[in-house]
Each structure stands twice: as structure tokens, then as C-alpha cells.
């Protein structure tokens, strides 16, 4: 029987022109710090549109947030928030800008020592500066969730923290803001969202037909619209809108409600980014087929359901269905332009050993979500992907 609480306070402003509604959603007397990345918003006109909407506000800016955002960079913004008495943060960009902004929001009022500790030691965050989002890259779901992933350059660590205090107050999702994305980033978004669904679906049955069919619907949409997005010469509004909404729905808590989650593929993938700087979604496309192969004897029931309902694989016994499922999933990632083997990125055994060591040194308490995946299996999963 399902048993869960669901609460998601993020207001979604979805559609073309929604950025003009920023003033209705930010207090008139707010002192805003607008955060952004490496400059894409200045090339595609999003910056001008946001500035125009905020014409009557006191706005400071902080640019230069990197993909896989750095702790060291975000800490510079924390100083600005403190020194300038900023009382609202507006993130304008992709998942990296939003995640860095969530961290800045939580780190500025943090009363402990070095803020990295609330990430590394999972210390609950007590408060945060309110924040809003203007999203330019559909992928992570961060626009409607409480998660943020931060990289510490000094130690090559990439870790997540979670707090209801960093939930955005609102998120502007204008699909036309994604037109300037390079195809590689569109593909990243589709694959990231697809794997988000799987980490909440491809586990164990708990009598959750609504969540299951919702998950399958999101995956079918991502396959259909992802293929379309890659093949189209010029971006199409409806196509980008469907990808955007699918990505948001993939990680906002709805499909996770009451079901068994397992974020092993993400946890292993983060290590590949930490050591080699690979795009987040690419790491998932590399790890997932090996992971599926590793768990197929335990997770047979949900994997067969996935094979039948999403890839329409109906012939053969359970194991042959699953083998074809793994092949089709891997081929889909390759179709989206991803090189899904470690050797295709010059990565070999040395990195695998370092990753296994890192998991071991953190101890079991760092792996609460892996559950049916042992530390030794992490090495075996990666070895399959050389
Ligand atoms: O920095 P700018 O110049 O803006 O360029 C970015 C960046 O180079 C560019 N871009 C974004 N919007 C654009 C654009 N270029 C042209 N037109 C636009 N409209 O795209 C590049 C990648 O951006 P990034 O924000 O890094 O990508 P994404 O949204 O995929 O975010 C990835 C980060 O999110 C984390 C990942 O680990 C990674 O650090 N994740 C966050 C999650 C969460 N908070 O819930 C869950 C995910 O599983 C994931 O771990
Ligand atoms: Zn992800």
C-alpha cells in the first residue's frame, strides 16, 4: 500500500512571454542578486528580457557560474549577498546556475563553519534567502525541486544537498528561451530527464500504477520529442515545450511519491564528472547500461514492464526481453549523440579504481540510496562500460 506526503510549493510560469510576470512574483522592495552563467543569456536576448522586466528593482548581478558549478565561485556570490544585504536571488540559466544559486541562498545565512560542511556532512539547512528561476535549459528538474549539486574544485568532489528551504518560489519556463541551445545540450536534457525517471521507476513494484504510467508517459514523450529535437533543423516551440514540461515532471517529486527510488547511476556518474569533467547526462548514458545489466536478476519485474510498455518488447522470455531493453536504451542514448563507453572518452581502469576507493572511504552511510548495490559492484558496473 502506498504511503507518502507530497508538497511542492514551486509556482510554475510556463509559456512564451511569461518573464514579463516577474514583478508580480518578486516583492517590490526586494534587493535582487541576479545570477547567471558564462554568457549565453547575453547572446540569446534572455538577459535583456529579464532586465526589462526588473526595470523598477534594485538589481545586482553575478555572472560566470560554470557548468557543474564550483563551490569556490559560488562562495564569491555569498560574500556579495552578505555585504549588500541581498534579499532575493534570481537564477537565470541552466541547472548549474540554479543549483549554484540554491547553494548561495543557503550558505549566506548559514551559522555554522565552512558552508561545504552542510553538503559533505548532510547537515540540515535551517534557512535560505528566497529565490526564483528563469530556466534556459530543460534537463535537471531543479526548477521545481529541493536539490542542488555542487563541485568543489580543490578536492575534485561533486556532491548534492537537499533542503525544502531552497525550493524556488517560482520558475519561469519559456520554451523559446531554449532555442539557442546547442544540440549537445538539448540531448543532455533529454537523457538526464530520462534517467531521472528510471531512478524512480526501474526499482521494485509497490502497487503504484499511477506513478508507473506517469513515468512511462514521460519516457515515451522524451523518446519521441528527443528524436524530433535532434532531427529538426530549426527549433520548434511545441517540441521544446514538451521536452521542458517532461523534464520538470521527471524530478519534482510526483513520480517519486511512495515508490522505491535508487540514485546509484547518478551517484556513480557524479564521480565521472568530478574526475574527468564529462557532462552530467553523458555520465548517466555511460553508467546506466552497465547498471541495468548488473541488477537485471533482482529487478526483473520492473525491467520487463519497462521493456514491454516503453520499448514495446513483447517477444521472448524475461531475460531476453531485458537484454534487448538494455540494447535499445543504449542505442537511444547513442542516437542522441552520446558516446556511451568509457574508452570512447579515454577513461580506463585507473579511474574506476579511484571511484571505488572513494565510495569505500566515505563508508556505507554515504550510500543510503544504493541499497541493493554493493560497493564492489560499482567497480563491476564501470568495468562493463570500458
Ligand atoms: O553558462 P552559460 O553561458 O549559460 O552556458 C550554458 C552551459 O555552458 C549552456 N546554456 C544554458 N542555457 C542555454 C545555454 N546555451 C545556449 N542557450 C541556452 N538557452 O549550457 C551549458 C550547460 O549548462 P548547465 O546549466 O551546466 O546544464 P544542465 O542544466 O544540464 O545542468 C547540469 C548541472 O545540474 C546538475 C548536474 O549534476 C550538473 O551540475 N543536476 C542537478 C539536479 C538537481 N538540482 O535536481 C539533478 C540532476 O541530476 C543533476 O545532477
Ligand atoms: Zn541528472
Q: Brief description of this entry?
A:
With 386 residues, the chain is an alpha/beta fold. The chain has 2 domains: 11-177, Rossmann fold (3-Layer(aba) Sandwich); 181-383, Dehydroquinate synthase-like - alpha domain (Dehydroquinate synthase-like, alpha domain, Up-down Bundle), CATH 1.20.1090. It is built from 15 helices and 8 strands.
Main beta sheet: 6 strands, parallel
Content of β-strand: 5-15%
Q: Helices and strands, in N-to-C order?
A: EHEHHEHEHHEEEEHHHHHHHHH
Radius of gyration, whole Å: 20 Å
**What is the structural class?**
alpha/beta
Q: Tell me, what's the shape?
A: globular
Provide a count of the helices. 15
For the terminal residues, how far apart are their CA atoms? Answer: 41 Å
What's the overall average pLDDT, rounded? 96
CATH architecture of the largest domain: Up-down Bundle
Integer tally of domains = 2
CATH superfamily of the largest domain: Dehydroquinate synthase-like - alpha domain
What is the CATH third-level topology name of the largest domain? Answer: Dehydroquinate synthase-like, alpha domain
Helix content: 40-55%
DSSP strand count: 8
Poorly predicted sequence stretches spanning 5 or more consecutive residues: none
Q: Class of the largest domain in CATH? A: Mainly Alpha
Q: Report strand order across the widest sheet.
A: 1-8-5-4-2-3
Ordered list of secondary-structure elements with their pairings:
Blueprint (H helix, E strand, L loop, with lengths): L10 E4 L7 H4 L5 E6 L3 H4 L2 H8 L4 E5 L8 H13 L4 E6 L1 H13 L8 H5 L10 E5 L11 E6 L4 E6 L7 E4 L9 H19 L7 H23 L5 H14 L13 H13 L3 H16 L4 H11 L7 H18 L13 H14 L12 H10 L2
Parallel strand pairs: 1-8, 2-3, 2-4, 4-5, 5-8
Antiparallel strand pairs: 6-7
The protein binds 5,6-dihydroxy-NADP and zinc ion.
The site of 5,6-dihydroxy-NADP (NZQ) has 34 residues, from helix 2, helix 5, strand 6 and helix 7.
Amino acid at each position: 500500500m502506498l504511503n507518502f506526503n507530497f508538497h511542492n510549493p514551486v509556482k510554475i510560469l510556463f509559456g512564451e512571454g511569461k518573464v514579463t510576470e516577474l514583478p508580480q512574483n518578486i516583492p517590490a522592495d526586494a534587493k535582487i542578486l541576479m545570477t547567471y552563467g558564462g554568457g549565453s543569456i547575453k547572446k540569446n536576448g534572455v538577459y535583456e528580457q529579464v532586465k526589462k522586466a526588473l526595470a523598477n528593482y534594485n538589481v545586482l548581478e553575478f555572472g560566470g557560474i560554470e557548468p557543474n558549478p564550483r563551490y569556490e565561485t559560488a562562495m564569491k556570490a555569498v560574500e556579495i549577498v552578505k555585504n549588500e544585504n541581498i534579499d532575493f536571488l534570481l537564477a537565470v540559466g541552466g541547472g548549474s546556475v540554479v543549483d549554484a544559486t540554491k547553494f548561495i541562498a543557503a550558505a549566506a545565512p548559514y551559522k555554522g563553519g565552512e558552508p561545504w560542511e552542510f553538503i559533505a556532512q548532510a547537515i540540515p539547512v535551517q534557512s535560505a534567502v528566497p529565490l526564483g528561476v528563469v530556466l534556459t535549459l530543460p534537463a535537471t528538474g531543479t526548477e521545481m525541486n529541493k536539490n542542488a549539486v555542487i563541485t568543489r574544485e580543490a578536492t575534485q568532489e561533486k556532491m548534492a544537498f537537499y533542503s525544502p528551504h531552497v525550493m524556488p518560489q517560482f520558475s519561469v519556463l519559456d520554451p523559446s528561451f531554449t532555442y539557442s541551445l546547442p544540440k549537445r545540450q538539448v540531448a543532455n536534457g533529454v537523457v538526464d530527464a530520462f534517467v531521472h525517471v528510471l531512478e524512480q521507476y526501474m526499482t521494485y513494484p509497490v502497487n503504484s500504477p499511477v506513478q508507473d504510467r506517469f513515468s512511462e508517459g514521460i519516457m515515451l514523450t522524451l523518446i519521441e520529442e528527443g528524436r524530433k529535437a535532434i532531427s529538426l533543423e530549426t527549433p520548434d516551440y511545441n517540441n521544446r515545450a514538451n521536452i521542458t514540461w517532461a523534464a520538470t515532471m521527471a524530478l519534482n517529486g510526483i513520480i517519486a511519491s511512495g515508490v522505491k527510488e535508487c540514485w546509484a547511476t547518478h551517484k556513480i556518474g557524479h564521480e565521472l564528472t568530478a574526475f574527468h569533467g564529462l557532462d552530467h547526462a553523458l555520465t548517466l548514458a555511460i553508467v546506466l547500461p552497465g547498471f541495468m545489466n548488473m541488477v537485471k536478476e533482482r529487478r526483473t519485474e520492473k525491467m520487463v514492464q519497462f521493456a514491454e510498455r516503453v520499448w514495446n518488447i513483447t517477444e521472448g522470455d524475461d531475460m531476453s526481453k531485458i537484454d534487448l531493453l538494455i540494447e535499445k536504451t543504449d542505442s537511444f542514448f547513442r542516437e542522441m549523440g552520446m558516446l556511451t563507453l568509457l574508452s570512447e572518452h579515454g577513461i580506463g581502469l585507473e579511474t574506476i579504481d579511484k571511484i571505488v576507493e572513494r565510495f569505500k572511504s566515505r563508508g556505507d552511510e554515504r550510500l543510503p540510496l544504493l541499497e541493493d548495490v554493493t560497493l564492489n559492484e560499482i567497480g563491476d558496473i564501470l568495468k562493463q562500460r570500458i
